Structures are given as C-alpha cells and as structure tokens.
Amino acid sequence: MRAAVLNRPGRPGAVDLAEVDRPRPGAGEVLVQVVACGVCGHDQADRAGLLEIPLPAVLGHEISGIVVETGAGVTRVVPGDRVATAQFATCGHCARCTSGDELRCPERSFTYGGYAEYAVLRATSLLTVPPELDIVATSVVACAVGTGLQALRTRAGLRPGETVLVTGAGGGLGLHGVQVGAALGARVVALTGDPDKADGLRELGAHEDVVAGDGAWQAVLEVTGGTGRTSSSTTWAIPTSSDRLSAPSPTAAATC
C-alpha cells in the first residue's frame, strides 16, 4: 500500500511517499481503509522535529474510513462500519475512562497512521459514523471540533445565553469554536484578522464579528454593552491563536 512516511524531520520534503506492507491488526486493534485524513498543526510539529516520536512514522490522526478487519477481542466495531478517530486511544475501563475524563487515562496514546491507504488503530480510538453524516467531513470532528467542545463545555462550563469571544475565529480551530459556541446556545463574538471572513463567520453562527487591530477590544466592549460581558452572565474568552491583545479580563478563559 502507499503511505507518506516521515523518516527525517526538520528538512524540506521530510515526508516521503513509499510502498509499504499493509498492516494486520493485533488484539484490540482494527484495520481501517482510510477515506480521509486531515492535516493538523500537530502534524506540522512532528514534521519539523519539534516533538519526539519514533521514526520512521506515518503521521495523521484526523482519520475517517471503513473497517476492514478486526483483531481479537474487538466488539465495538465490525467490518464494513464507517468510523472516525478520536485524538487518543485509551484503556476504556479505568476510573478516568468510565467517568468521562478519558483524556487523563494513564494508558492514553496518541493516534497516528492516517497518511496511508490503510491504518491499524486501537479500537478504543474509533467512533462509529452515522449514515447521515459525510464521512470525509467527520475525519476532523474529534480534533478540530472536539478541542473547542472540550474548552467551551467542559472547561469553561459555557451555558445558553452567555457570551463567548472566539479569537482567531477565521482559523481552523476558531471556525469550529464559533459553531460549537452557537450550538451550545451562546452569543458568539468572533474576532478575526481578516475582514473578508466576517460574512462567513456570521453564516457559521457568529452573532457579532470584530476585526483585530488597535481598536478591537473597544469594539468588543461596544458589542457587549460596554462591559465585555452580557448583563446577566459571563463572557468566556477562547483564544485560538497567539494574539496578544490588551483587553479587559474576562471572568474566565479557556484555551483551545
């Protein structure tokens, strides 16, 4: 099968297209035919050598595909199932996993292998894709969408009617943060450095858009009634970029 293999990070063309043997799933593993795989900032860091990973490696963790074969002990999926990956595989049975805090599972391991025609993945990293969803689009759900959902719902405790400020709203995480905030019933203020993205952000659910610049925070105050928050609730600032802006401090901030 074909795979994009990282052999020597930190150089131009660090990833080489190669023919490699198709893997076989072991106990607790699943062989997936890859339909789509997103490209994430984590992949860029791996390619640049900023993260220490065993080499050679097949990168790619935003994966969707079709189950081809299952290893011993796998019961949650069967051949033919449409699946997408979570960012991490976990044990699935420790106290952290069973309480919904699986990101702190002591056996947590990062997902790799999506830059290939087939990937062997731990069964606990797979989510079944309902038939009504586009399987290509679901490849990025756990990473790009899940990051914002974790920040807004779990960390910030955002509630309907509250106001959320999403910075870097025109970027990959920001676009999804806007949609997640709107889906949670919040009033979304989108801060972007590109005025051409304003209309698109409103179409995705932003109630207000602000263009980054010297007067950005004054504009935020204006669209929130001069206080930086709604009259009855909190403004949550969700920074999704490295912007350093001087602003009134929100009551809380959650970082994607």
How many domains is the backbone divided into?
2
**How much helix, percentage-wise, in residues?**
10-25%
Low-confidence stretches: 230-235, 241-253
Element order, helices and strands?
Answer: EEEHEEEEHEEEHEHEHEHEE
State the major sheet.
5 strands, antiparallel
| Corresponding CATH architecture of the largest domain | Alpha-Beta Complex
Spatial separation of the terminal alpha carbons: 35 Å
| Beta-strand fraction estimate | 25-35%
Overall pLDDT, averaged? 85
CATH topology group of the largest domain: Quinone Oxidoreductase, Chain A, domain 1
List the helices and strands and how they pair.
Elements: E1 2-6, E2 15-19, E3 29-37, H1 41-48, E4 57-58, E5 63-70, E6 82-85, E7 88-89, H2 95-98, E8 109-110, E9 118-122, E10 126-128, H3 141-155, E11 163-166, H4 172-183, E12 187-192, H5 198-203, E13 208-211, H6 216-223, E14 235-238, E15 252-253
Parallel strand pairs: 11-12, 11-14, 12-13, 14-15
Antiparallel strand pairs: 1-2, 1-4, 3-5, 3-9, 5-6, 6-10, 7-8
Question: Explain this structure to me?
Answer:
By secondary structure, the chain is of the alpha/beta class. It has six helices and 15 strands. It has two domains: 2-135, Quinone Oxidoreductase, Chain A, domain 1, CATH 3.90.180; 144-253, Rossmann fold (3-Layer(aba) Sandwich), CATH 3.40.50.720. It has helices at residues 41-48, 95-98, 141-155, 172-183, 198-203, 216-223, and strands at residues 2-6, 15-19, 29-37, 57-58, 63-70, 82-85, 88-89, 109-110, 118-122, 126-128, 163-166, 187-192, 208-211, 235-238, 252-253. The longest helix is centred in the middle third of the chain and has 15 residues, at 141-155. The protein is globular. The two termini are 35 Å apart.
